Amino acid sequence: MLITIQQLLWSIIIGTAIAAVYTFYTKRVLGSFVRQLFEKDAFDPESAVSLEQLKPKGLAFIKYSLRSGTSFSETVLCADGKYYIPENQLDKAEHKYCGENITVLVVMIILVLLFVTALVCSYIFPGLLSLLGISA
Q: I want to staple 72 with a disulfide (CB 3.0 to 4.6 A). Which of 28, 65, 88, 120 is the partner?
């Protein structure tokens, strides 16, 4: 089965859209939780803080991301129901979760631009090429 250029284009667009949403989730939801741990100086089991103390937004998503085997659960550790970032994970936590914050507006603009690009490449370019007598 051959993949057409249009299928390839839509695959790239959908993949990029998923990446934009995931980046938003990582920076906004998980990043907010990590920034709270940084503010509380929770860098070892003795200084760890509970979820009740932090009252983070998106608690269900944070709990889901803290399940065993995830990258987030390797960065944020749990000791007796309290959470902290170990010293050897501080650089990773700061780089991955605390970098530039991406806003909902930016994600929406990216998604709209991707959609418009896909439509232009799928419908307008082939029409223009056929008008010019060029077969694609």
A: 65
Which spans in 1-136 are helix H? 5-25, 31-39, 51-54, 59-65, 71-75, 90-97, 104-119, 125-131
Cβ atoms of 87 and 44 closer than 8 Å: yes
Instruction: State CA 129 to chain mean position distance.
Output: 37
Per-residue pLDDT reduced to its tens digit, 12-31: 889 999 998 998 888 888 99
Edge-to-edge, what's the strand order for the sheet holding 49-50?
A: 49-50, 82-84, 77-79
Question: In Å, what is the CA distance from 45 to each residue of 16, 66, 86, 102, 116?
Answer: 38, 16, 8, 30, 49
- If phi > 0 it is left, if psi is from -120 to 50 it is alpha, else beta; for residue 55 that is left
Question: 79: part of which helix (H) or strand (E)?
Answer: strand 77-79
Which value, in Å, is the radius of gyration of the alpha carbons in the chain? 21
Q: Which amino acid is at 133?
A: G
